[in-house]
Every structure is written in structure tokens, then in C-alpha cells.
Amino acid sequence: MTRDEILAARTAAWPVEARSALAAVVDALRPSAHHLSDMIDWLDDIAIRDGTSPGVVLADPDLRALLTAGGSAPERLKRWKERLRRLRYPRLVARERVLADHLRAMECGPTVGITPPPALEGGVVTVTIRARSAAELATAVESLRTRIARGDVDRLFALLDEA
Amino acid sequence: MTPLPRDATTALVFVPEAILIERGCENAPMVRRCRARVPEVPVTIIDDRRALRGGDFAAAKRRLLLAPWRGTFLEHCPAGTRGMACCNYLVLTFASNCPMDCRYCFLQEYLADNPALTAYVNPETALAEVGRLLDRHPERQFRIGTGELADSLALDPLTGLSRELVPFFAARRNALLELKTKTDAVDDLVTLDPQGRVVVSWSLAPAAAVQVAEIGTTPVGARLAAMRRVAAAGYKVGVHLDPLVEHAGWEEGYRDLLHEIAVAVPVARLAWVSMGALRLSPALRTVMRARFPATPLLAGEQVAGVDGKWRDFQPLRVRMYRTVRGFVEAALPRVPLYLCMETPDVWERVFGVPPAREQALGALLAAR
Questions:
Q1: Distance, in angstroms, between B278 CA and closest chain A CA?
Q2: Are B300 and B278 in contact (CB under 8 A)?
Q3: Measured between alpha carbons, how far is B290 from B357 in angstroms, rounded to an integer?
Q4: Which pTM was predicted?
């Protein structure tokens, strides 16, 4: 389906002001059909959950501000969808932020990367080490060993365990 | 669906608006029983069911097609796929579609274009197929259920199928039949002796969840009353807390529900309890948006899992599983509890141990 077809099919039952607000978003951000479907799904979901209308969701000040913020349309679209995702998945995003804060606080160093699973599904973190020498590798491994010993990694997995 | 007054012997859960009979099976015993039980329903004889047109899923639920099934009746349960822990369960199909209309039901996607709720009129062929399997493997214990593509009992007051199934399985030593339902259609069942070989299972959820998610199903209180009746008649009872539905007050709802189950059924009669998350394929979500745009079931914090189905994000559903597991263990001590369509990782987080291999898990449940 094209963007216009998606808009026609998915927003026919929306109030006029909600359709207008979404049209302004589409003009400003030029989302692909795939992104637009996501956006409409999330707007509908939030409206159902909160007992409101998609237009009220679109009136969120942060969402409105992002339409005219700096950067290219794709960059603004990315930030706009991130904001909408925070509204759609408040508990998931809150947990992801706690995890991100914890990973920052662990300060594993520039050669060690720890990535939580996408959407926290699966419970498995991905650990990457970049090294140009045996010494760099040893430093990275020692950094991880220290953080395991002081309980940082246990805390990391606890955050993935239960919400 | 037109409700009919209940009588002492036949609780009609469903009365179709029309009955279609494929030519050639007009005199099948099941056809004769159906016609005798709802003589007021108009009947049409059709030459070939393939000529029927589908497309209106809700309308299809209201007309009953009686026709033979010419394929294989037994299949492996589809839950054991793509990274999910499996309990080695076989599915036996006697009907396709359901008169109830649960908002989350996968049949909305799977049978989207089907033209009618179909009951297969040749159960003797199915039971012959089952008999051959059981005879080939006398050393194995099989768990076989009929509730995959249809509610096991919703059509029973019309078809009388349980009168054929229960004696067949009662006479077998290496199989356990599970009849899975959201109804209270047990009037025929309680007149039969299952010899310990039949489990009648109920899908249960707190009344608040049933109200928004399980439209057209029997109220929870009536299901519990039916549970009490079959337990008294010698059946084992199963409980499926599946899907677990997060809603306002869900913890109290599930705690109270487990308490009510414990009051209704002696723990010794309970065969198993399962838990499963609400899980929706992308295609099912699309269908639900079209059919029920205001359903709150789509508004949970669901994400795509390893099998492509959307569930509440993992830490959230682990919390739900652990919470409800606590309620189950407090109310129904020592009753086997398992997860349906979950990953080994979630299983281990909930129970502290990885899932048993499928043969072992299946044997454990079959031995109940």
C-alpha cells in the first residue's frame, strides 16, 4: 500500500482534527509506508490505552516540537518515532533507560561493548571486545572481570530479568 | 447466535442459523443427531463444500457445515516450533472454527476465509487412525487433544461426539484425551465413565479479562461449576491460564481465580495447569485491528519474539508468570505447572530450571 492508501484506510474513522494533525506529521517527516503504518498502529494503541483520541496524542508538545526541530527529515523522523515509542511503551522504554544508565555507569572502556537484547527479548546480552594487541585484549578482559567481581554484571542481568 | 432454553439433558451452547450438509453424508449418525437436536434450524444439502464462499468471519461462525474430513486427523501440536519448549502433544481435529469470538483467537487469521464452522462427520475414521498409532507404540504414553481448531465441547450438545470419544479413550491404556473448552457443555460427559483416561480442561481468566477478551464464552462461574461436575464424574481436570491477560487488578484477579478453582475441584483431580502469554502474530494483529479496533489487547507493551509472535516484553511477562506461579502453588500444591509456547530461557527464569526434554515433559503430564 502507498502512504496515501494507508492514510485513507487506517484513519478513516479518526476525528478530522486528528487526521489533519497526522497529515502535518507526514508532510514534515515524509515517513515511508512502513514507518507510517507503525506510527498509526502506535497512535491507535496509545489512544485506546489512554481512552483518548490519536489527535490528543499528536498534540504532545515534544512530538510537535520535533516536527520543526533541526536536522534532516530522516533524523527528525527517527527522533519523532523514538518519542512516540516512549509514549507507546513506557515501561519497556523506562527499563531500557535504566539499563543504558547502568551500562554507562559500568564504564567498561572504549574497547568493550555490552548490548542488551532488542526490546529486552531473549535475556541475552552481546559483549564485544575490540583489540589490536594481546595487551589491549588483556586490558579489556580485566575490565570485564573487575565489573563481574563487583556485581555490576549481576545487576545488569537482574535488570533484564523482571519488570 | 440464538440462545435456547436449557433442559436437563442437553445444554446447547450454540444454535446455528443454518446447517449445510455435504451430499453423501446425510445419514451419518452425527448428522442425524445434529438435525434431531435442532429441528427448527433450516438445512441445505450442498454438492461440494469447496463451492462455498467465505470472507465474513463472523458470519461463518453462525452456520454449521457437516461434512467428512478426508485428510489426516492427527498432527503434532504447532506450539513446538521455532525455539519454543514443547510438551509433545498431539492434536486431533474434529471440527474447524468456533461459535465463540475471543478477541485474541488465532482462528481469525488462520481461518479468515473459511465459509462455515465445520464439524467432521466421520469420527470413526479419526478414531481408527488414533487406534493404529496407539497400537503401533504400546510402550509410549500419548497426550491427545481436540481443542486446537475448535473448542472441544462447544458443538458437543449438537454432535454428541463425546459419546464416541470417551468410551474409545477409556478403553486405551496408553493415551490420555484432553477436551479443552470455554463452555459448560458437560451434560453428556458426566453420563460417561472415562476410566481415568480423559482430562477436561478449561481455559480460564479473571472475569474482568473475560469481559474484554472472550466474547460469547461461558461465564467463569459456570465453567467452574462444570469443572466441579466432571471432577465428581471421575474425570481429571486441566486448567489453562492462557492467555494471561494483563489488566487493571490482574494480580488479585488471578489470585482469586486460583482460589475459586481450588474450591471447585479437589487438588487430586487436577491433572495440570498451564500458563501462556498473550501472543499475536503480525497477521493476527492486523485482523484484530480491522475487526476490533478498540480492543485493549493490542495496547499492551508487546514486542516481537523469536517466533515472530508479539508478546508482552520479556521482563514483564516473567513477572506475570512468577506471580501467577506463586498463586498456583499456594492454591493447588503439587499440581504440575508448565508454560505453553515459551522459550527455554523464560522457562528457566520462571521455574529456576530448564524445561525437561519434550518426551520427558510429555510423559510427566501423561502420567497424571
A1: 15
A2: yes
A3: 39
A4: 0.91
